[in-house]
Design a protein that fits this description.
By secondary structure, the chain is of the alpha/beta class. The protein is built from five helices and eleven strands. The structure holds hypoxanthine (HPA). Hypoxanthine binds near residues 107, 180, 185, 204 and 230.
């Protein structure tokens, strides 16, 4: 899979926009569809790693083209540990994508990151197990070790923050995303441990997506929508019904930020 690295953008501290910017959005829980878009075509890619989560739609919003992939499938049937993250990233790479705007619904751990908060994380701790998490594992491709000091691309992070600002929506700049295996939620003791480790947010889908994007030299950032307090941080158990309500309210704001970030990435050449 050496060609995965064939891209003019670098993905570390000093990134520059590629000459041709092609943006993909990866939608998570609550964002399997994207309304208000002129859909131009639908791609059904096969990759050396199998099929991605579903069709990849190509659309246009306000004159800006982008790709959209629903991480859990169009019918939201794929559990976090069953998602073929390698196929998703390889398929986007094959379509010429250079930048990824990912959306993750998460639990809040930091006191300032309760339900309804939006966060652009800047760090990750990976607690997942047994997920295919590399293109360069010596089997799928040559053994290699990427730098992952800063897991999220600074230009994509900045575009998301600027977009939130333009939309007049509050968004936390930075946070540590702890990625658990799922699909069950955490125990109270696991949440205490995550907090002790320095995690501000907990989700199930941030990894290995972010490191695969880095391996493929795709510039990757995430917008996290906090949909519940982490387990044991409130007196009541986590209710999927309540999560559903918060997701429904929050995703309109997330969509607004995504299309504004798309415009920033596509049009702001001084970036
Ligand atoms: N834990 C893990 N993943 C999640 C949570 C949570 O509390 N909420 C939304 N995704």
């Amino acid at each position: 899979m050496g060609d995965l690295r064939n891209n003019t953008g670098t993905s570390q501290g000093k990134t520059q926009l590629s000459p041709e910017v092609r943006v993909a959005m990866i939608g998570g829980t609550g964002l399997s569809e994207f309304e208000g878009v002129d859909w131009l075509s639908t791609h059904y890619p096969e990759t050396p790693f199998g099929k991605p989560s579903g069709p990849i739609k190509e659309g246009c919003y306000d004159g800006n083209r982008f790709f959209f992939l629903a991480r859990h499938g169009s019918d939201h049937s794929l559990a976090p540990h069953k998602i073929n993250y390698r196929a998703n990233i390889a398929a986007l790479k094959a379509l010429g994508v250079t930048h990824i705007l990912a959306v993750n619904a998460v639990g809040g751990l930091a006191p300032s990151m309760g339900p309804h908060t939006l966060v652009i994380p800047d760090q990750v701790i990976d607690y997942t197990v047994a997920r295919e998490s590399s293109f360069y594992d010596g089997v799928a491709g040559p053994l290699d070790h990427i730098d992952f000091t800063d897991p999220y691309d600074p230009i994509v992070r900045e575009a998301l923050l600027l977009a939130a600002d333009k939309c007049g929506l509050a968004c936390e700049d930075g946070g540590v995303y702890g990625c658990t295996q799922g699909p069950r939620l955490e125990t109270a003791a696991e949440v205490r441990r995550l907090k002790k480790d320095g995690c501000d947010l907990v989700g199930m889908t941030g990894m290995p997506e972010a490191c695969l994007a880095r391996e493929a030299q795709l510039q990757y950032g995430s917008i996290c929508a906090v949909v519940n307090w982490g387990a044991g941080l409130t007196d009541s158990p986590i209710s999927m019904e309540e999560i559903g309500e918060v997701v429904a309210l929050g995703m309109n704001n997330v969509r607004a930020i995504l299309v504004a970030a798309l415009a920033v990435l596509m049009n702001d050449s001084g970036h």
